[in-house]
Structure formats: structure tokens, C-alpha cells
TrEMBL record:
It comes from the Eukaryota. The lineage of its organism: Eukaryota, Fungi, Dikarya, Basidiomycota, Agaricomycotina. It comes from Lyophyllum shimeji. This is Uncharacterized protein.
């Protein structure tokens, strides 16, 4: 039997603080939303694919990750709200620069499996963000839709987060850390 395809999470809007990440094979769904009037971004696990229909339903989910940034959008605290995580850490300790004087766009973190992973900006051709093991085995990548190519569906951005099979259990941590990395790049931190 062939291995399952990677999780290919379609980024619905391309927005850093208001989007959905839905697996193309309908296995996993996440919603990212900013708390109005606060520098807090929430990640929710959803039961169904993001759609206009879901947007019209009452929203009563509890977040599974809370990203509290400082009022000036600098790094704050990441909190995993469910077991087995149930942790809260300063983001600068959670996602550390790979070298003391290196770029902020290259950071590493320790995942729940006890292994260290690193995110890098544009280190592989065609990948906006790439996550690798410390020995450079590709774990996940976030790809942007080329500016001259229209997405196949006008309701999606054409951006994708791909998570490879052996790393499926880390999908939430990869999405949370990617969201912080994109925030760092967006705010030039």
C-alpha cells in the first residue's frame, strides 16, 4: 500500500491573522483569527473545511493555540491550550535564532517529540518557508502562489503548507511556529 499523501493545507485567504488552513484530502482543518482590538492571534481546530457556509454559523470553539504579541507587535507568548502540550512560553524562547547574530528569519524550536526543528526563509527554490530537521531533512514547507498565476478557486489564496508523512503529529506545532515566523517577517522583527 502506498504511503498517505502529505498534508497539503490550503491557505484560504493568505492573511496572517484571518484565514483557514484546510487539508486538500479533508483530513484536518484549522482556523486562524485575530482577537479584535488586541494583538492576539488564535488557532482553532475545526471539524469542517473553511467555507462561506461555515463562516455564517455561530462560532463557539475554544482555541488550541494562543499567540499573544505585545501591543507593538513584538514577540510575546505562545500558549498551547490542550493536552499533551498545556504549555506557555515566551516566543523568543520557543523559537530561537539559529545563530546569535543571524537573521530573525532563521529560527529553531523543540517540538513535542523532543526533537529540534528549524524554519528558514527562502532556503529552497520555490519555497517561501521551509522547516527541516537539524540534519536538513525536509519536514514541511509553505509555498506562495506565484503573483502571475491565478489560484484555481477564487475563494482561496493559492498558498499551501505541506507537511510530510512522518511529521503529521507535529502539524499543529508547525502551523503555530510558521505563523510566528510569518509575523516576524511581516513586522521586520
Amino acid at each position: 500500500m502506498p504511503p498517505p499523501p502529505p498534508y497539503i493545507l490550503e491557505d484560504r485567504t493568505g492573511s496572517l491573522t484571518a484565514t483557514d488552513f484546510d487539508d486538500l484530502y479533508d483530513r484536518i482543518f484549522f482556523h486562524i483569527a485575530r482577537v479584535p482590538e488586541r494583538p492576539t492571534t488564535m488557532i482553532y481546530s475545526m471539524n469542517i473545511r473553511g467555507s462561506r457556509h461555515r463562516d455564517s454559523l455561530p462560532f463557539n470553539q475554544q482555541p488550541i493555540v494562543v499567540l499573544d504579541f505585545s501591543p507593538d507587535e513584538k514577540l510575546g507568548t505562545i500558549s498551547y491550550m490542550q493536552k499533551p502540550y498545556n504549555i506557555s512560553l515566551p516566543m523568543h524562547r520557543y523559537l530561537r535564532k539559529t545563530t546569535l547574530f543571524g537573521s530573525s528569519l532563521f529560527r529553531k524550536f523543540v517540538a513535542s517529540d523532543g526533537r529540534e526543528y528549524k524554519w528558514g526563509h527562502r532556503i529552497f527554490e520555490g519555497q517561501e518557508w521551509s522547516c527541516t530537521t537539524m540534519d536538513n531533512h525536509l519536514v514541511a514547507h509553505f509555498d506562495l502562489n506565484p503573483p502571475n498565476v491565478r489560484p484555481y478557486d477564487p475563494n482561496v489564496s493559492g498558498h499551501y503548507l505541506t507537511v510530510y508523512e512522518h511529521f503529521f503529529p507535529l502539524t499543529l506545532e508547525l502551523l503555530a511556529s510558521l505563523t510566528i515566523m510569518r509575523h516576524i517577517a511581516h513586522h521586520n522583527l
